[in-house]
Amino acid sequence: MTLFKPVALLVLSAGLALSPQPATAAKAAAAEPLQLKPCRLRGLPTEVQCGTLQRPLDPSQPQGKQIGLRVVVIPALARNKLPDPVTFLAGGPGQSIVELADTVASRMRRLSNRRDIVLMDQRGTGQSAPLQCADDSRLSAAEGLDSAAQLRRLEACRAELEKLPHGDLRYYTTTIAMQDLDALRQALGIQQWNLIGASYGTRAALEYQRQFPQAVRRNVIDGVAPPDMVLPASFSTDTQAALDALLAHCAASPGCEQAFPKLATQWQQLLDGLPRTVHLVNGRTGKRETLTLQRQHVVRAVRGPLYVPMLASGLPAAIQAAAQGDYDALVGLASGMGGGRKELRLAMGMHFSVVCAEDFPRMGQSTDAPGKHFERLDAELYAGVCAKWPRGAVPAEFYSVPKAPSATLVLSGGADPVTPPRHGERITKALGSLATHVVVPAAGHGVLALPCMGEVLFRFINAKTDAEALKVDASCAAKMPLPAAFVPPNPDLPEPAKKASAAQ
């Protein structure tokens, strides 16, 4: 998810079709039988099954224009497999789950012994009627950081996407996508399955559970992005809280405090000294460039590392260096999110089709106060994009979270800058007695990737009853410490700081 991976991370269009009822989706699915054939995927040592599920672009017109959704089934290893597979819902919005098949398979070995793993790229992502904008990873730093230029690129992308056969951008909402997912369940003859959603995938999982509660055996939501979470307003609030926590943690940690004794002051001085002309190495191209650095560029640069505590441990040193005029470390950490890997590149057309329809119209209802440093940075960008982006119809019920029909495991990272525990706590209360919330204080955006959580996930899904599932001990990661601040070798560092750093 990466949820709502940072980008940079109002009139409704006329004639929007109402979202169909589940029965309509089921009839459309029956028209084109799903056929699976043996295939190979990168990173997987064994054959899997691949196919294409045909679905109407506009669900209210089941005989109208069709789109193909890419499906992959990783068969269970054991012959006596269980009837309830596991399906994953990717983050973003805009991430391809099929591109992550090797990662999913490697982390779910125990589960996949007796359960099929079912993956389908959500409409608008991967090879499912993709809404992909041009790759901007090779832009110069100045081009990549220019908000006005970014808005122009996104407007050009929208115009190009609308020319595609599947380019009616109103039909890529989460509600419609989850009807696609249930059509897949029916096409595979599955009575119930287990959902695992991460980041934006948690919103998708909650929406699926709302529409099709009888089909959910277990639900695991990691890094909760509730349907009523108003993006990008929460971006500013939650990232500010994560940055404030990092600065406070450094001040309270002897090694960090002695190495960077004025970190909060240096951070403020860094911002106050902008704009300024700087020379830095572009973390993606490796080329040294000269550009005028603005305040918005620096606050965006610190957001990415905050997703991953190991990267965030380098921020104190990077902030100190930047305050002294060396921006290379800060830019390097910012480019560490994703590293240009294809599977982490979001389909930005799908991203904005979701956010502009589901979140942006509700900006005026948000109670999240803008962060001191992040202010309305993202709101301004999304306002520019969403002003002209076609918006799908979102049913009022989408923003509600009914009681969980079965055991639901809610996971939150205490250091998460985008889906922190406050969202997971609220949704757990809404889900009721069949939901349990596990907070890992030192985890960032994503808890399931932690080493011991694979066993927790297996025990939760493998439990025979909801009561047994809710008793599964998920405290194994609770004592995991935050990574110590990285202190670069420095002969001028005070001796106490050297000793404290060595002790860490």
UniProtKB/TrEMBL annotation:
InterPro entries: AB_hydrolase_1, AB_hydrolase_fold, Pept_S33_TAP-like_C, Peptidase_S33, Serine_prot/Carboxylest_S33. GO terms for molecular function: peptidase activity. Residues 86-230 form the AB hydrolase-1 domain. Residues 1-25 form the signal peptide. Residues 383-461 form the Peptidase S33 tripeptidyl aminopeptidase-like C-terminal domain. GO terms for biological process: proteolysis. Keywords: Hydrolase, Signal. The keyword Cell cycle does not apply. Belongs to the peptidase S33 family. This is Pimeloyl-ACP methyl ester carboxylesterase. It comes from Inhella inkyongensis.
